[in-house]
Design goal:
Strand content: 15-25%
Strand order of the largest sheet: 3-4-5-2-1-6-7-10-11
Number of domains: 2
Number of strands: 17
Radius of gyration: 23 Å
Helix content: 25-40%
Number of helices: 18
Bound molecules: alpha-D-glucopyranose
Distance between the termini: 21 Å
Structural class: alpha/beta
Shape: globular
Largest sheet: 9 strands, mixed
CATH class of the largest domain: Alpha Beta
CATH topology of the largest domain: Rossmann fold
């Protein structure tokens, strides 16, 4: 019997688009280690992992009323050991797609994922104590278990709703309510926000606890203009910001399978050897400082600033190199490729997703830039710090909570405030000067690699929420 059941659209290494996948692929493992028996339920997609890891059906069921009839299966992997059990909701025509998101019928896809998952839990002999939902794809569950007649067995189970990214709400038109299991008409207000059915707003209203992935981000949601200010304030009493951890077993410079040169004891030679390897592969000079960007190339993550910042810096100084790894908006991808074209000796890029290259870049780089306009938590700055790479971040959301400027007492990073290229360029110059002062640079790196962002520590904050 599980004490906590996590529901999510992503879970590393099975299905990952971004940080949500990393968190759901790690937090349950550390909850288990801490003694809270935890499993994860996610949709079965048509992705590489599922092609190579067979799963067997352990349950079949039907979600139905007079408007719909959807058969589902629950599958369990035959031989997968991630530190937590994973169950897949299998509804081939809706969920078994090449991508996780991005289809016209996403609302219906995730609606039935949620229904099937709790339909199954409703059949369990014992009930979990906590149902933990991640992002809007699972935001309707706290409503369903307490209001839909079909799920009476589950009413009263405590729910936690974690917001990894409040920019996405999954809102859909009210006529799709015909795909809902029956509930009393007077409850419909719990589902509505701004004349739509809004899973993000529903999760906030109906769950027992709401967490955001940093306290700084929760403040921004409450006090900076957005469509949900009222909700975050009204329900502030049950909201808490908890900074994510990282999986320090996966992210371990001494054992990381992706690396060519592992860390022995000497950080400087570990970094330099990996840097030479990467630089050689793309024709960059390994004697110059190397600044990387890893992530989605969109406005939210400051994709335009990445381009403009590198462009403006190189216009005046070619003594720093850059490597950009990511994908996103085509115009930003194209702009980055053009930069590499203009500056073949200073700018390398890989447009796409590449977990292995990401690990190697954290090892090889001197600096990582994250000029995000919005950053609920951010994991890359923590991966970077663990691999001895100094983060250059805009002071926003979780970045503000996790990175202290080296100019401040005990600081190990570089922070800037304005979401503008000039402020990023100023920070790149500070990085450049820091690198030139090798004693100071070594000292800052020494502070960085001593930090502990592990889940072993962070998991306790979730356990406290569960207990409350
Ligand atoms: C989302 C957020 C990111 C956060 C991650 C995990 O991807 O954009 O800031 O770190 O979720 O919670």
């Amino acid at each position: 019997m599980y004490q906590a059941v996590h529901l999510s659209a992503e879970c590393f290494p099975i299905a990952k688009v971004g940080g949500l996948g990393d968190v759901v692929g790690a937090l349950p493992k550390y909850l288990n280690i801490a003694g809270i028996s935890t499993c994860v339920i996610l949709p079965k997609y048509n992705q590489k992992w599922n092609a190579t890891h067979p799963a067997e059906a352990i349950h079949q069921g039907i979600c139905t009323n007079e408007n719909f009839y959807v058969e589902y299966k629950i599958l369990r992997y035959v031989d997968v050991h991630l530190g937590f059990d994973v169950y897949l909701v299998d509804i081939p025509n809706l969920l078994f797609r090449d991508n996780i998101y991005g289809y016209d019928d996403d609302s219906i896809r995730f609606l039935f994922f949620q229904q099937a998952a709790i339909n199954w839990i409703n059949n369990w002999a014992g009930k979990p104590e906590i149902i933990h939902c991640h992002d809007y794809h699972t935001g309707l569950i706290p409503f369903m278990i307490n209001n839909c007649y079909d799920f009476g067995n589950l009413a009263g189970i405590k729910t936690v709703f974690t917001i990894h990214n409040g920019l996405y709400s999954g809102a859909f038109p009210t006529y799709l309510l015909s795909y809902f299991p029956h509930f009393p008409k007077e409850s419909v207000g719990l589902l509505e926000w701004d004349q739509t059915i809004n899973p993000l707003a529903t999760g906030i209203k109906c769950s027992n606890r709401v967490t955001t992935v940093s306290a700084g981000y929760l403040d921004e949601l409450k006090y900076q203009d957005n469509a949900y200010n009222w909700l975050y304030n009204e329900y502030g009493f049950k909201c808490k910001g908890i900074v994510n951890g990282i999986d320090t077993e996966v992210w371990n410079p001494k054992t990381d399978n992706y690396l060519i040169h592992l860390l022995k004891n000497d950080w400087a030679s570990f970094k330099q050897k990996n840097k030479e390897e990467i630089c050689k592969s793309v024709g960059l000079d390994a004697n110059k400082p190397l600044t990387i960007f890893i992530g989605r190339l969109n406005t939210e993550k400051g994709g335009e600033l990445v381009y403009q910042g590198i462009h403006d810096f190189l216009a005046g100084n070619q003594q720093m190199n850059f490597y950009v790894l990511g994908s996103g908006a085509h115009q930003i991808e194209d702009a980055i490729k053009r930069l590499s074209g203009y500056h073949p000796n200073n700018v390398a890029n890989y447009i796409g997703y590449n977990e292995e290259l990401a690990h190697r870049l954290y090892t090889a780089a001197d600096f990582l830039m994250m000029p995000s306009l919005v950053e609920p938590c951010g994991l890359n700055q923590m991966y970077a710090l663990r691999y001895g790479t100094i983060p250059i971040v805009r002071a926003v959301g979780g970045l503000k909570d996790t990175v202290v400027d080296f100019g401040d007492f005990g600081g190990y990073g570089i922070r800037f405030n304005a979401p503008e290229a000039y402020d990023l360029v100023t920070s790149l110059y500070r990085a450049f000067d820091l690198y030139a002062d090798s004693d100071k640079f070594d000292h800052v790196r020494e502070l960085a690699v001593k930090l502990d962002f592990s889940w072993t520590k962070a998991v306790n904050n979730y356990i406290e929420i569960y207990k409350s």
